[in-house]
Amino acid sequence: MGSLVLLFIGFCLILFLLRVQRKKNFPPGPYVFPIFGNLLQLNLTNPVPDLQKLSGQYGKIFSFYIGSRPVVVLNGVQVIKEALLKKSVEFAGRPQDLLVSHLTENKGVILADYGPSWREHRRFSLMTLRNFGLGKQSMEERILGETQHISAYLDRSAGKSMDPQHLFHKATSNIICAIIFGSRYEYENEFFLAMINKMQENAKLTNGPWAMLYDSLPVLRYLPLPFQRIFQNYHSVVEHVSGIVTQHNVTQVAGEMRDLIDCYQKEMEKQGDSNSSFDKSQMIGLLMDLLFAGTDTTSNTLRFAFLYLMTHPHVQERCQKEIDQVLGEKPQASFEDRHRMPYTQAMIHEAQRVANTVPLSVFHTTTKDTQLMGYDIPKGTLIIPNLSSVLNEESQWKFPHDFNPSNFLNDEGEFVKPEAFMPFSLGPRMCLGEGLARMELFLILVTLLRRFHFFWPEDGGVPDYTPVFGVTQAPKPYRLGFRLRGRQGV
């Protein structure tokens, strides 16, 4: 008995020595356990509801621990705007010791830390997207061309039902592939399907329980555990992208800019070797960023949109009536038509709001010691902007917990965008593909709603709006019912 008592006392002493204590004036939060921090207090399958509860208990800014690493969670419009807009530089860093940062090796733009290389690559990316027609008719033509492939695919199965997951992933992936690689894939291309599957799997795994263990317990990182699958998937796609870059070197014609690869290689030649941040490894990182970000978020938003349109037929009918009135005999929609479609615009934005595809944004870090809402936050602290808290904030929306386009309409029926609408985040780290995503969502949804009627099929079961959590949030698999409309606009 004495030995057991001594063992218990020793165990308690070890826990006491390993305990993590919050620094003075650090944001409050739950008690921190040794080794695991607060991970055992969160549902790692989907921690968003637990973070909402903690916010209710500790306030709009609170802290918890991933292992021994402190994390500050930002909730609500006021706090997130204060951090990401008013103190944008102080909160513009990216974590460099998490699974996602090890995956990309600080390359590209999404997970690259704040600094000269990130600024140069973000500026290059935005300029190149504009040069390839973002916001112009040429980009519309790319998107509408891909939308015709979607329509043709649906035409062949009109009157039936299908799982739309792969169809929308193929379409959005092809649009970004046309920009960065200069070509698209056929929908049944073997590698194309494998690449999409790997990206979808990584989207689920990278914010899942095994990734959390990787981040919390470095001693586990080299063991053959499920998080190794994330690295295998990523490097498999990297290998293919590297092959495309090599092929471009063979086929490139001087002065001809076919795609982003050609533009990047021209920039490399322009800058030379002297202290330039532009090199092949950075180019691969950038291509991977654009490929992943340009596929998953838009595809998942489309899937959420059709899920709600099928189960809210009055919304679908009103959108179709507006589309028919505005387009008339026009052969196809243009992005400018959105200004004459307030209700359809409102529906699309409402789909983005309820989709909440990046619920915890992309993690930030502080670049220097700073203060926020009266609390002291040291340099290097991991920051999570909880975008879910904003997109569902009760004081900001007329119908915060329902799918209702009226959230984006004023009393006169005009389209308005509340300040709480920030699915692309805010500040210097705001998603650089926002313009492309907005154009894709409008042109794809309008084109398909003009041609097809979407309905909940008999084999669809009971609609379930519960999202599947991941780096990008997705709807649960469902069946999409569709048939050609009686009066077709195209």
UniProtKB/TrEMBL annotation:
Location relative to the cell: Membrane
Family: Belongs to the cytochrome P450 family.
InterPro entries in alphabetical order: Cyt_P450, Cyt_P450_CS, Cyt_P450_E_grp-I, Cyt_P450_sf, Cytochrome_P450_fam2
UniProt keyword Membrane, yes or no: yes
Signal peptide coordinates: 1-22
Superkingdom, taxonomy of origin: Eukaryota
Name used for this protein in its record: Cytochrome P450 2F2-like
Record GO biological process: organic acid metabolic process; xenobiotic metabolic process
Keywords: Heme, Iron, Membrane, Metal-binding, Monooxygenase, Oxidoreductase, Signal
Chain sites annotated for binding heme: 431
Molecular function via GO: heme binding; iron ion binding; oxidoreductase activity, acting on paired donors, with incorporation or reduction of molecular oxygen, reduced flavin or flavoprotein as one donor, and incorporation of one atom of oxygen
Gene3D superfamilies: Cytochrome P450 (1.10.630.10)
